């Protein structure tokens, strides 16, 4: 009798495992971005993904205005060779224009943001002016026509495209939209993400631990990573390792959510109900990835009525959960939300630790990077790298990426790092 080998985090290279990039591409190929749209008041749109093209209804700024506190003048009337004296005929404040029309030999006192008076195209900043008395100033022959003036539409021209579909709204975007007088936006609805842990050894905080039992920490790291995204979170707790419980959890989760995440129940020696349940309720798209940690990972889809939920069966080991979430679930949620593929940022750094590795899989070692006083990035590993050693993640501010063909790094070599979003 031949027994089928179940993959685990400790397996060596397997020929039928797929690469990290293949896995990422397959996920993106399968997932269909959210189509549901809602209209929200401007402030509520922060971090949501835009579902409409925004073109500007107005010029920003709407009028030619002054960039400085100073004096508005006609460029043709500036002194050419010698200083010249002028009459101050009025004042223009921001929001309170001056009705005076400048003739030769005249200037208008103007404040920053004040609309340029008729006949003026230049502002001389007040620090460059000699004030003779309340109505008289002298200018030297050192100024240029057009200086210190903001043109109408200089920031945003009326009718120009400002923000495109799929854009995640930032703080600066909110400011721009407010400056255009836009009160509401069409945005995509937020993805709903359900997650639960599986494992008879798991206890919740507050319970007393029996022999061999551990507290469920994966739901806390998953919750925390999801909390930083623009998603609705559905925490379904710990589900016992029985066929019936897992089946009903899958059905409930896929009725409510766009993405269902589980942790545990997919490695060596498990009474493994995750895979058969997924098979019964939907499709399994892949199973093994040549990476460490995170080798045993399931991606699939669950079909309930007209709703499809995308399923991620993450490994149980706490570090593997975080690594696979960041490498696969994060880009999947981004694509689901926006229809856009987002590549994680990587940087080059000098590695001060010797790193051991076997060729044939991508490794995500945990590292601490910093910038030296001369601007160089250096990285060291956090210490023990076991996939159950969660302190390796909490000490780290980046992954050190060791690609498939790499068979180790000597201290002093250059490596690629992937900073954690919180460290950028
Ligand atoms: P499994 O994939 O279920 O075999 O789990 C692999 C390892 O991760 C085992 O040592 C589990 O006890 C541990 N583990 C599984 N789920 C969790 C969890 N929710 N929190 C903390 N550790 C877990
Ligand atoms: Mg388990």
Structure notes:
- A hairpin with a 2-residue loop joins strand 8 and strand 9 (136-139).
- 35% of the residues are buried.
- The protein has helices at 20-30, 171-179, 218-227, 243-256, 274-281, 318-338, 391-395, and strands at 37-41, 54-55, 65-66, 70-73, 84-92, 106-110, 122-125, 130-133, 136-139, 149-150, 161-163, 184-188, 192-198, 202-203, 214-215, 232-239, 259-263, 282-288, 291-292, 296-304, 307-314, 347-351, 362-371, 377-381, 398-402, 414-419.
- A 6-stranded mixed β-sheet has the order 7-4-6-5-9-8, with no helix packed on it. It has a 6-stranded mixed β-sheet with strand order 16-13-17-21-20-18, sandwiched between helices.
- It is α/β, with parallel strands linked by helices and 424 residues long.
- Helix 4 packs across helix 5.
- It is elongated and about 95 Å long.
